[in-house]
Amino acid sequence: MTNEPAGAEVVIPLRTADVSRETEFSAVETPIAAAAASAARLLGRRTEPWPQPASPRVLTVANQKGGVGKTTSTVNIAAALALHGLRVLVIDLDPQGNASTALAVPHQAGTPSVYEVLVDGLPLADVVQPVADLPGLIAAPATIDLAGAEIELVSLVARETRLQRALTRYLADVAAQGDRIDYVLIDCPPSLGLLTVNAFVAAQEVLIPIQCEYYALEGLGQLIRNVELVQAHLNPALHVSTIVLTMHDARTRLASQVADEVREHFGQVVLATAIPRSVRVSEAPSYSKTVLTYDPGSSGAMSYVEAARELAHRTGGETTTSDHSVQQKGSS
Hints:
Shape: globular
Oligomer: single chain
Largest sheet: 7 strands, mixed
Distance between the termini: 82 Å
CATH architecture: 3-Layer(aba) Sandwich
Order of helices and strands: HHEHEHHEEHHEHEHHEHHHHH
CATH superfamily: P-loop containing nucleotide triphosphate hydrolases
Number of strands: 7
Radius of gyration: 24 Å
Helix content: 40-55%
């Protein structure tokens, strides 16, 4: 019992510990604040530049299965690299031209494109265009004419090496002008035809996006065998350097099982960062943007930044030992 008169206001002293806890709580960033800060850092490029490779790294982004995130991964990884001080060239080798759309590069019929480079021998420099809002990123667009290139290439001399020769000349000319290209990302069609073979011959590395679903694993062995064939007969330097898991839904057991199986089989070749399913990633191309410019604070944007960071801090030859096991297991 207290001696306070009835009706008197009772004052409870506030302890110092309570004040400190309250202050500590208010200082914690909320998820929205964290996303806003990440977006500001990304768009303002107030970040450390990522390491430049000693020579241009040429990566073919390939998977003959459609809808696994090839184009999405190509344009968003390219954008992340460019936002961190690197010079990047995207070559759209898919007749659908989705990479050109996402980068807001004109690719209507009649636009000089990769088709003229492959079939007519037009210099690559004549078709490359800068990407708006992303300094350091340039692109060689694809038009619908590329759909007929598979047939037209059949009768041409050295049909498998036409992209390689055009790219080699372009990189040499850029270097001669005192400029540089750090990364070349080639977006392939969902097939294993002559366009994809040209991409394999032009590259040193293969980046394979794998959707975290069972069907996405089917056909992977055939893709690996095609890489081995090109390696044996046309491009000894070619190897699978990177696998990125896409459309990962952490709420489902299936996605986790597929991710675990891919990591078990392919080891260090698989990036630690998995790209989550994201509405923002799906919406961005309809605005002719990458997710990094459409919603830089979204989970999809930050995941692609982390995936690109991993890629940039690897060297193309780091995964050579693992590549052998990838090919062995992919063929089995």
